[in-house]
Design a protein that fits this description.
single chain; nine-stranded mixed β-sheet; alpha/beta; TIM Barrel; 12 helices; 38% helix
Length: 369
Amino acid sequence: MAKIVRVEALMVDLKPKVKRTDAIQSFVSQETPIVRIYDADGAIGTGYTYTIGTGGPSIMKLIELTFAPALIGREALEIERIWRDLLFLTHATTVGAITSLALAAIDTALWDLKCRRQNEPLHRMAGGAQARLPLYTTEGGWLHIETGALVDDALAAKAKGFGGSKIKIGRPHVSEDVARLEAVRAAVGPGFEIMTDCNQRFTVDEAIRRARCLTPIDIAWIEEPLTADDMMGHVRLSQSTTIPVAVGESLYSALHFREYLQQGACSIVQVDVARIGGITPWLKVAHLAECFNVPVCPHFLMELHVSLCAAVPNARWVEYIPQLDTLTTEPMRIEDGHAVPSDAPGLGIAWDFKAIEQQAVHGSAFSVG
């Protein structure tokens, strides 16, 4: 083992390549803090996290003033101990998005460093359960997109070998959502999955109503139908519909997932590696879901989730939303509509550090140690 001697970080503000709208918001920016951790033997680990437009500077300050100083002198391979110590160090601000997102940047960097020291890819170091995962696309299913374009995008995804498309729902009246989804179903046929995403838009009664209206279309799941902290509402919905209920991108603690699973409030877990606080808790949630015979279909961050999904046996899908194209030298590998994890040592992300430095937000960079 070797002690941590330096922590560096900066933030890149990525602009989405396409307009992204859902039932409650529009995405205009993707703040991406990137952390590099150095140990005394010269090994380097790179990690990252993200926001959808706000909170990035707060994450950077938490890392600079609290987490980074606490890492200096620690044994870099003691990832579990470090994660728990940092969580306790910020116990006054947990459970919360800013703390979890900052933890994720540190934790993913430590896992990258560990894998590189062992000369192994993350998907094998973390489990090695699957060789590739089917993809579904979200980029052509945003709420503002007209029905004809939804159909065209779904057909294009099917032609590429993708297994499904996600369509955002939450138009003013349920009939509008139904019409859009029926058009897609008629075009792609019964063997192509249609996922739906509500982005926490509905009340319980409206979610139950919409689920009833969507049932004949045979959708793969209804995602985030209610606010994430309304667990009992999700129980009521799950008991009232045969459509699988998917939650997870807005949960920030493994214990929250435990409660959802124990109460039967969901049937698909969408744990997000950044929002849960890193790889260390992500794996715990994935294995917890496995014990409940529930699949994992993580939210976003496909470049990292492909390796994590390959590590566990109960991962079912990887969500296709390109994020890091301008910051990497090669994209995520895709074969016949499936995501294939990289065999390169580390997280499997081919960072372009020159491009990262060029795109960094002015004044965001710092070094501790």
